[in-house]
Specification:
The complex is a heterodimer of chains A (117) and B (111). With 117 residues, chain A is an all-beta fold. In chain A, 0% of the residues lie in helices and 55% in strands. Classes of the chains: A mainly beta (117), B mainly beta (111).
Chain lengths: 117, 111
């Protein structure tokens, strides 16, 4: 595996379900990110982890719960989601977290297309 | 509120022409600028980074940055149908420090 991988690629869940999204980066990066991409809207940053420590939480509802057990893996735990949470969820990584040295480019995984019924 | 503005398009150009994509940003303290290409149903792919005023060329792509005008652009020379995608401009805010994305410009290259 190379780059950033995400599983599953597609997910359909009911509002009462609990599911988890997984992301793994093979780039030796120290920072990882979760983004949400909805139609007609720009990418929305959800969470930032730097060296396994959460450093950013952009007012995301508590029904989204991130976990970063090490610098290569990132999870997004989902529970009691709403239909408006249906979107493409993207994981990204960068060499360092964004505030270091003016910002580093981020590399994205393929995303998980989530549909909440 | 830090903003990145792009014309949503679609921008339609004939094959072989130069496609010009523009982006303006509101945070004068922004330091780093990126262009991503996103094919329909796929994730964003980094194609250019630019950090200082002027032009940066990479193959058929040229990024142009003018910090005084708070403007960054992407030129695609000899456009190909395979360049048809949405192009996202992303800017690192100065004080806020987050990577802010524009909504993207949809480019269509007609054979």
């Amino acid at each position: 595996e190379t780059g950033v991988t995400q599983t599953p690629r597609h997910l359909v869940m009911g509002m009462t379900n609990k599911k988890s999204l997984k992301c793994e980066q093979h780039l030796g990066h120290n920072a990882m990110y979760w983004y949400k991409q909805s139609a007609k809207k720009p990418l929305e940053l959800m969470f930032v982890y730097s060296l396994e420590e959460r450093v950013e939480n952009n007012s995301v509802p508590s029904r989204f719960s991130p976990e970063c057990p090490n610098s290569s893996h990132l999870f997004l735990h989902l529970h009691t989601l709403q239909p408006e949470d249906s979107a493409l969820y993207l994981c990204a990584s960068s060499q360092e977290a964004h505030w270091v040295a003016g910002g580093r480019p981020q590399y994205f995984g393929p995303g998980t297309r989530l549909l909440v019924l | 509120q830090k903003e990145v503005e792009q014309n949503s398009g679609p921008l339609s150009v004939p094959e072989g022409a130069i496609a010009s994509l523009n982006c303006t940003y509101s945070d004068r303290g922004s330091q780093s600028f990126f262009w991503y290409r996103q094919y329909s149903g796929k994730s964003p792919e980094l194609i250019m980074s630019i950090y200082s005023n002027g032009d940066k060329e990479d193959g058929r792509f040229t990024a142009q940055l003018n910090k005084a005008s708070q403007y960054v652009s992407l030129l695609i020379r000899d456009s190909q149908p395979s360049d048809s995608a949405t192009y996202l401009c992303a800017v690192y805010g100065g004080s806020q420090g987050n990577l802010i994305f524009g909504k993207g410009t949809k480019l269509s290259v007609k054979p």
